[in-house]
Design brief:
The protein has about 140 residues and is an alpha/beta fold. Helices cover about 40% and strands about 15% of the residues. The protein has a five-stranded parallel β-sheet with strand order 2-1-3-4-5, sandwiched between helices.
Length: about 140
């Protein structure tokens, strides 16, 4: 993916966590276009290019919070992974929950990985940078064409 701008969809209702994620990606010097949706319903509209998202780009990677209003991350993840047109997009669950139930549920719904957000600023930045390093430089992602 070198040289190519990576499309990332961040599904997150916390304005602070959105800002931290933006900063972490910037610090990691990863060329990316970060789109943000505040809940699962908005994310599905974005992914399906409807209800105001008709020109939305197909993401190379989805960063998904679990605890959100209207539609949470587990339900959104399940719908994404059951849709043949969306199922190949890697989904990284990035949440504050350390619940074994949430971890198991995420993997049962085919999350590509589960990461608990650190509360410490420096650690959060390191986590976002490591996500960028791994998913956007090490891993071979499917073509979006």
């Amino acid at each position: 993916m070198e040289g190519k701008q990576i499309e990332i969809l961040l599904v997150e209702d916390s304005v602070g966590d959105v800002r931290l994620t933006q900063e972490g990606l910037k610090e990691a010097k990863i060329r990316n276009n970060l789109s943000v949706c505040k809940d699962g319903i908005e994310a599905l509209d974005f992914l399906r290019q409807k209800n105001g998202f008709e020109k939305s780009p197909r993401p190379d990677l989805i960063l998904l919070d679990l605890n959100m209003p209207r539609m949470g991350g587990q339900e959104c993840l399940e719908i994404i992974k059951q849709d043949p047109t969306l199922a190949t997009i890697p989904v990284v669950v990035l949440t504050t929950s350390q619940s074994e139930r949430d971890i198991m549920g995420s993997y049962q719904h085919h999350a590509n990985c589960y990461i608990t957000k650190p509360v410490d600023f420096e650690q959060f930045m390191k986590v976002v940078q490591s996500i960028g390093d791994f998913w956007l430089t090490v891993v071979k992602l499917p073509s979006t064409a």
